[in-house]
Amino acid sequence: MDEVTCPYCEEECKINHDDGAFYNENEEEEMTCEHCDKVFMVSTSISYYHEGSKCPCKNGEDHDWQPQRGFPKEYYEGRESCAYCNETRDTYTPEQRREAMKRLIDLNK
């Protein structure tokens, strides 16, 4: 919502966020009504929206393992995340993980 009702004249006023104003929750900021020119205080509150999604792996079905991607790629080699529940696993053996980390360290030398 980018409008607020002036508490004096009860007209709708557009909120200007160009300078980063009116984004801080629990912080009151001054605003001048564009209709009656009176100054009033505006407070910001944030609301959340929740949405459910199916998670078959939490109901006895298999995980949908997907390779993790990121930088540096050597860190993410052999790591996977479930597309449903975000659980992670490392498919590398300890030796493979050591080798991947060694390649990462060697890149930073």
Question: What does this protein look like?
Answer:
The chain has two helices and seven strands; from the N terminus they run βββββαββα. It is an alpha+beta fold. The chain has two domains: 40 residues, no CATH class; 48 residues, no CATH class. The strands form three sheets. Strands 5-6-7 form a three-stranded antiparallel β-sheet, with no helix packed on it. A two-stranded antiparallel ribbon has the order 1-2. The protein has a two-stranded antiparallel sheet with strand order 3-4. Strand 6 and strand 7 form a beta hairpin. It is elongated, with a radius of gyration of 26 Å. The protein starts with a strand and ends with a helix. The mean pLDDT is 92.
Topology summary:
Layout: E1 3-5, E2 12-14, E3 29-32, E4 39-42, E5 65-67, H1 73-76, E6 79-82, E7 88-90, H2 94-107
Antiparallel strand pairs: 1-2, 3-4, 5-6, 6-7
Structural class: alpha+beta
Q: Percent of residues in helical segments? A: 10-25%
Can you count the beta strands?
7
* Pattern of helices and strands: EEEEEHEEH
Q: How confident overall, as mean pLDDT?
A: 92
